[in-house]
Amino acid sequence: MNDLYSIDFSYNMLTGPIPSGEVFQAAYKAYVGNAAGLCGDAIGLLSCGSSPSAERSHKNHTTLLIAITIPVVGCSLMLVTIALACRRQRTRTSEVAETENHSFVWDTGLKFKLTDVMEAIDNFNEAYCIGRGSFGVVYKAELPSGQVLAVKRHHFSAESDIQERNVRSILNEIQILLGVRHRNIVKLHGACTKKGVMYMVYDYVERGSLRDALYSVFEALTFDWAMRVKVIHGLAHALAYLHNDCSPNIFHRDISINNVLLDSDFEPKVSDFGTAKLLTHDASTWTAIVGSYGYIAPELAYMTKFTDKCDVYSFGVVTLEVMMGMHPG
């Protein structure tokens, strides 16, 4: 075979390995048209160690490996994701638990926190005090964003019947008030109880109470008839909303000229949703008389339940007082 320099085995359906001679391995297109089992080191042929069946077996092995690896990796990633989520949830739960120790309720849609409000009034510095009452102190908080808030700080007296069992009832009622949305009702943003003190955060209303407008010499001069009608009209809308459009219906229980505030345009804003009563009534009964003297419906002396009609009676007294410029009683 030393003198052989050209071969052609094409289209003979040959199988098996080709000879190892140089002329057999260097031939090009000499094996076209043969069986798939023909193998060797010549150009165009499969290596004898890589028969079609072996190649198919290798492909099947690779496919099986991929089919096993992808689910395993996917499951591993899922387990890691679940573990991280559980860890974050445990962190959030601990934060919520710490908050609940202070009996905290807050509007989650706000862009500020209670800590921001406390910083704005320098942790209840007297310089920010704008009013005092029988149930606490009011502070004015101006946030860096320009929003102005009123912070009411109520102290529980040692004789108060507000115990731990009643705090949850109070905050449940406050939770309902967080959902109130009306132009004639002061917006409550949240509340917190801690160590015998309740903090409540509202929008700040510029002109103060309706009492100031009626009985302050300067304010009374500018409080004309059109403004008085506007106040009565807005107060009626607020009560109609509370009694009919809220679910559950809300009874204010303390409509008076002290609890109606006026903004810069003399638009009325109902405030103090029975806060004084929330802080003093026994949660187990509703028989106690609630409200401000001079505005309380007379039927409360013998009724066992406060109704919307009690609010309407108080509204009538306020309406007469606004019209007359003095209390009708």
If you had to describe this structure to a student in words, what would you say it looks like?
This is non-specific serine/threonine protein kinase. The radius of gyration is 42 Å and the shape is rod-shaped. The longest helix is centred in the N-terminal third of the chain and has 49 residues. About 6% of the residues have low confidence. A hairpin with a 5-residue loop joins strand 9 and strand 10. Helix 7 runs antiparallel to helix 9. The chain has nine helices and ten strands. 39% of the residues lie in helices and 14% in strands. The protein has a six-stranded antiparallel beta sheet with strand order 3-7-8-6-5-4. The chain has a two-stranded parallel sheet with strand order 1-2. By secondary structure, it is an alpha+beta fold.
Summarize this, please?
The protein has 329 residues and is of the alpha+beta class. The protein has nine helices and ten strands. The relative contact order is 0.08.
Could you list some keywords that capture this structure?
single chain; 329 residues; alpha+beta; 6-stranded antiparallel sheet; 9 helices; 39% helix; rod-shaped; protein serine/threonine kinase activity; Kinase-like_dom_sf; membrane; transmembrane helix
